[in-house]
């Protein structure tokens, strides 16, 4: 059995009614704290000071939870990682919440999930957390959340920075992925609907990048189609594939507006780094006249759809833990075989053109001293293995990050960071 987040959320929120979450110093308490969103019944989003107080309170109250700092933003807000588990486990699930600051529903779902799992006493939750460690970045873009903007304080879209790692926010996430090697990377967002063709309550999408290991790709699709979507639909939410317009009569795809294979996007980078990635997009726009007339009602639906989808994630990881571990473990080892093409374009629904396939990759890439000095920190954050040389550095392809190396260093890759010299003397 796996924990049911919606049930836990309702139980914790009800218990907290007797002791509402006040702006007082954090202290251990048997009563679960409430978010600002819950206190206002969805009329406003949880503020960052409220988030910090909640995390501090829960951290002190629960032995199964810890909070660590990954870094700070340009405006000096903390980037934090929450770890929840009964013990250290091989199986790890990572939630990335609200990379886009003006998409807050995923963050609210993450905060209540952290609280509920930390306080839960039921046997199913305890057994789940003995076998799976949950990692959560509760606010991946604190500056953007404070300003209610998509980008960070420099106006940069963090979800287009998971290759070059120019932002403090993306660097923090890369370090978490490198150090913890999650089996699932679950990325929570929101979207604006298009009437008739693109208006589901909840969309999701797996890694489309063609460098994603076939078995990991299959697990990500299973997570989506057999678990996340059915869980949302069981609560009355409509679901679909992100970025695909469909005919309302036939249900057939008629247009693709997003969801390409760009390696800069976390969903695709998840696959490149051998995790079953999944992008989640809840609908911002009101669904009914009642929601149009009551913003709080609309906000609550946005958050509850995220919580419903999270139930599907926990069901999947509870039931397919061993299979998932085998898939991600094999994918990480595959790079050491140093076999097969590397793709610099295309997607699972868009076959790569000949110019987008490195059919016979080099043994590695040679960096000059200046090139290595320019990108050595980013290589380290990505977990790329490098051999130092007097003339600079050598980056072999025979490593777990095999597919990532050309995307960073080969001039044929659209977003490469430097043009390194390929070594064809294999």
Automatic annotation (TrEMBL):
<feature type="domain" description="Peptidase M14">
    <location>
        <begin position="44"/>
        <end position="283"/>
    </location>
</feature>
<dbReference type="GO" id="GO:0004180">
    <property type="term" value="F:carboxypeptidase activity"/>
</dbReference>
<dbReference type="Pfam" id="PF00246">
    <property type="entry name" value="Peptidase_M14"/>
</dbReference>
<dbReference type="InterPro" id="IPR000834">
    <property type="entry name" value="Peptidase_M14"/>
</dbReference>
<feature type="signal peptide">
    <location>
        <begin position="1"/>
        <end position="28"/>
    </location>
</feature>
<comment type="similarity">
    <text>Belongs to the peptidase M14 family.</text>
</comment>
<keyword id="KW-0645">Protease</keyword>
<feature type="region of interest" description="Disordered">
    <location>
        <begin position="29"/>
        <end position="49"/>
    </location>
</feature>
<keyword id="KW-0121">Carboxypeptidase</keyword>
<keyword id="KW-0862">Zinc</keyword>
<keyword id="KW-0378">Hydrolase</keyword>
<keyword id="KW-0732">Signal</keyword>
<keyword id="KW-0482">Metalloprotease</keyword>
<protein>
    <submittedName>
        <fullName>Carboxypeptidase</fullName>
    </submittedName>
</protein>
């Amino acid at each position: 059995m796996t924990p049911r987040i919606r049930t836990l959320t309702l139980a914790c929120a009800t218990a907290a009614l007797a002791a509402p979450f006040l702006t007082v110093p954090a202290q251990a308490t048997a009563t679960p704290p409430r978010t600002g969103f819950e206190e206002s019944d969805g009329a406003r989003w949880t503020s960052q000071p409220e988030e910090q107080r909640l995390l501090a309170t829960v951290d002190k109250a629960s032995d199964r939870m810890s909070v660590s700092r990954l870094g700070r933003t340009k405006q000096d807000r903390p980037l934090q990682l929450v770890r929840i588990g009964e013990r250290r486990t091989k199986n790890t699930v990572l939630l990335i919440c609200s990379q886009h600051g003006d998409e807050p529903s995923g963050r609210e779902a993450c905060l209540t999930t952290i609280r509920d799992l930390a306080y839960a006493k039921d046997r199913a939750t305890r057994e789940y957390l003995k076998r799976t460690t949950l990692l959560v970045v509760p606010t991946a873009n604190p500056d953007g959340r404070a300003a209610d903007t998509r980008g960070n304080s420099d106006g940069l879209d963090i979800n287009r920075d998971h290759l070059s790692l120019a932002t403090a926010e993306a660097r923090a996430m890369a370090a978490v992925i490198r150090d913890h090697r999650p089996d699932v990377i679950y990325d929570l967002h929101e979207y604006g609907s298009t009437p008739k063709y693109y208006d589901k309550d909840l969309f999701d999408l797996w890694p489309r990048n063609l460098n994603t290991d076939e078995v990991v790709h299959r697990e990500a699709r299973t997570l989506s189609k057999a678990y996340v979507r059915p869980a949302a639909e069981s609560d009355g939410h409509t679901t679909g594939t992100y970025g695909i317009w469909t005919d309302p009569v036939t249900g057939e795809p008629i247009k693709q507006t997003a969801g390409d294979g760009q390696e800069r996007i976390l969903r695709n980078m998840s696959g490149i780094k051998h995790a079953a990635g999944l992008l989640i997009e809840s609908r911002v726009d009101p669904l009914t006249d009642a929601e149009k007339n009551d913003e709080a009602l609309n906000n609550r639906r946005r958050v509850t759809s995220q919580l419903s989808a999270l139930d599907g994630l926990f069901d999947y990881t509870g039931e397919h833990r061993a299979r998932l571990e085998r898939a991600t473990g094999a994918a990480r080892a595959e790079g050491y075989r140093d076999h097969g093409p590397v793709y610099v374009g295309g997607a699972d629904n868009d076959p790569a053109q000949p110019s987008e396939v490195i059919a016979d990759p080099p043994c590695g890439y040679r960096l000059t001293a200046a090139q290595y000095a320019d990108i050595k920190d980013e290589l380290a954050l990505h977990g790329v293995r490098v051999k130092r040389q007097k003339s600079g550095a050598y980056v072999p392809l025979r490593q777990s990050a095999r597919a990532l190396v050309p995307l960073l260093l080969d001039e044929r890759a659209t977003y490469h960071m430097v043009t390194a010299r390929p070594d064809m003397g294999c």
